[in-house]
Amino acid sequence: MENDNRQSNNDDELPNKMRNMSFDNSIDENYDETSDLNIDTKKNSTIEAIGIVINVAQTFDEFAPLIGTFLALGDEIKKLYDKAKHNKELCSFLLKRCNGAMAAVRDLDMRKTENRGFFSKKGNLKLFEEFIKCMEKIKKFVANVSQLNKLKKYFYAKKIEEELNELVKEFNGYMSSLNFSIN
């Protein structure tokens, strides 16, 4: 019962204390609005980062199948080189160039976010599509030349040299235009 009395006294005290309280309508001078600004800035940065990731994903989606095709062509050229019966040096010369291009494309693929500028340029998409056609020409050239014996190579020497020079010039042009480097 004693507990009930104490409880009832505490209940009476609370309304009395509230009657004596007053509310101040003045602005708290110690309130720091910069913390709200920091939260807004962080929110905006996060939203911006998400937007960048989405943009990279959208632009990369156009390149993804092309990158796969390019790397597959490079692998096919390697296999042709491995199977080459003739003109191994000539095939090796082109294979080294293809390996450099494949390394550049793999790096581009691995570092998508850092290379968003590359993926966002529509001109690069067209160039990359044309570069794939150049790789197809190299594959065809390696397939043909690797099967030519010395006698046939002698008869076709001028044509082989012209085609090789044309392929190398075209290949180097795409490497330069796409800002890929051969190490």
Brief rundown of the structure:
By secondary structure, this protein is mainly alpha-helical. The protein has one domain. Helix content is 81%, strand content 0%.
Question: What's the helix and strand layout?
Answer:
Layout lengths: L1 H19 L13 H50 L4 H23 L5 H5 L1 H24 L4 H6 L1 H21 L6
What does this structure look like?
InterPro entries: Adaptor_Cbl_N_dom_sf (IPR036537), MLKL-like_MCAfunc (IPR059179), MLKL_N (IPR054000). The structure is a single chain. With 183 residues, the chain is mainly α. It has one domain. It is built from seven helices and no strands.
Key descriptive features of the protein:
183 residues; mainly alpha; Adaptor_Cbl_N_dom_sf
Element-by-element helix/strand order: HHHHHHH
Taken from the alpha-carbon principal axes, the silhouette is elongated
Radius of gyration: 35 Å
Oligomeric category: single chain
Strand fraction band?
under 5%
Low-confidence stretches: none
Let me know the largest β-sheet.
none
Count of discrete domains = 1
Average pLDDT level: 80
Number of strands: 0
Q: Please report the number of helical segments.
A: 7
| Helicity, as a percent range | over 70%
Q: Report, as a whole number of angstroms, the end-to-end distance.
A: 93 Å
Structural class: mainly alpha
Organism: Rhizophagus irregularis
Protein name: Mixed lineage kinase domain-containing protein
Region (Disordered): 1-29
Domain Mixed lineage kinase: 68-178
